[in-house]
Amino acid sequence: MLDCALGNLSVSTGDLLTARAQLAEAFTTASATLDMPLVATVAVAVARLRHHEGASAAEVLGAAEALRGAPDPTDPDTRSLRAALSDESAYARGRALGRAEALTLVEANINCRARFGAS
Question: How far apart are the C-alpha atoms of 97 and 7, rounded to whole Å?
Fold first, then answer.
């Protein structure tokens, strides 16, 4: 989870390329554990990474909730993202995903290179 925390820090400082690499590593590690609340924590960080792309971030945030199995109103990142993201239909699409589809969506949003200028 250190990579997830470092990814969040990199997002906060605007170093999105580094954040993407750190969150990719965190996702790989978390996914291998099959602990879906842990994977959901990484997914919330991915939604933070994508927060300037409203629909993508909202859908990933919904997928995080689907992976967790329930809303987490105690998580400050989830609360602030929910308040900032207004695309309820994208959020609902993410929430409606099954585990495999939610994992695929989160991974695709980590690996999306267009926003980060990498090839």
Answer: 24
Range scoring the smallest mean pLDDT among 22-26, 76-80, 111-115: 111-115
- Is 87 within a domain? yes
Q: Dig out the tokens for 84 from the structure.
A: 């900032």
pLDDT band at 73 (very low <50, low <70, confident <90, very high): confident
Q: Residue 88, exposed/middle/buried by CB under 10 A (0-12, 13-18, 19+)?
A: exposed
Cα-Cα-Cα-Cα dihedral of 80, 30, 12, 82, to 10°? Answer: -10
Q: Examine the pLDDT at 117 and tell me if it is beyond 60.
A: no
Residue span of the structural domain in which 75 resides: 2-113
Q: Is 78 within the bounds of a domain?
A: yes
Instruction: Kindly tell me if the per-residue pLDDT of 119 is higher than 50.
Output: no
- Cα separation of 74 and 11, whole Å? 21
